[in-house]
């Protein structure tokens, strides 16, 4: 094909129209357009290669990756078992074109130029291409969309919320379950609930509450990392963003992946507007709860509401009803897991395992004595304190 034909085919994409917003594809499109003057072609070719080489010198690999991760009407419908014949025909035609585009070289783009112009552009570097089976790879990806996702959900598995929109976390906490000793029994229930969510079975909203530093947040993050390859995604939500969540949940409900909405360090004052918002999210709204979403929250408070003695001795005529209202929020979590401060034996077991993980060489009795002294200064035993002590030992601060 000639340059103008490549341009027309790119502009005519329907299923994969989102590719035209890709920064590298944009540069390629510019290269296929415009006048054929040597100076302009050199400039546009250099801009395309500069953008491509930021990621890889191989154009085939770049474009194949962009196609496989593309969010489009087909991938959304295929996830729900909808295969309209017209869309299927259009999909195959565009995949055939994109397969050809994967093999496009600079020499092929310049082939229509006079020989002297081609010679003038011989100094330009030639990007790499390689054989690809794009159609087969994409159709396989469609069958795996419930585990691998599409668009940004294929590239990332942890997200935050900014003005009601999901923002990927490029460098999430790499915590793994195997790195969290001491609370395996507590985590078993959370893991079982997460597996039920992934299997499409009824799953509970989960409240992890207990003493500070016992690994509640780390457990949720580690579970998200552990099951990301099976289609689990984590969305961290701040308490003051709860009013934005209903619209977000509506958009996620149509996604084939499974989502944990994670609210860390949750607590409310009695007059907090976010209190009612979370109640509605958990179960109290007129819309049914999405089967692919569960709320996991951590808190140092069992009943989530900060109460004072004045609250209990005030002039409320229906004080019992008011207290019932305040306690109703925690009751909406179907599964409540308690993380208590570790007793001496558990603290020692955590220390021993962390010392092994970090490669700390110190006699066990000496390690325990120093760790207990460190814990007293830090305000008491906890897995967080144990890790801080071991990290200081590894760094040579504790000797």
From TrEMBL:
Question: Does Glycosyltransferase show up as a keyword for this record?
Answer: no
Q: Name one Pfam family in it.
A: DUF815
Question: Per UniProt, which keywords does this protein have?
Answer: ATP-binding, Nucleotide-binding
What superkingdom does the record give? Bacteria
Annotated ranges, domain AAA+ ATPase: 202-323
Membrane-spanning regions, if any? none
One MF term in the entry's GO annotations: ATP binding
Q: What is this protein called?
A: ATP-binding protein
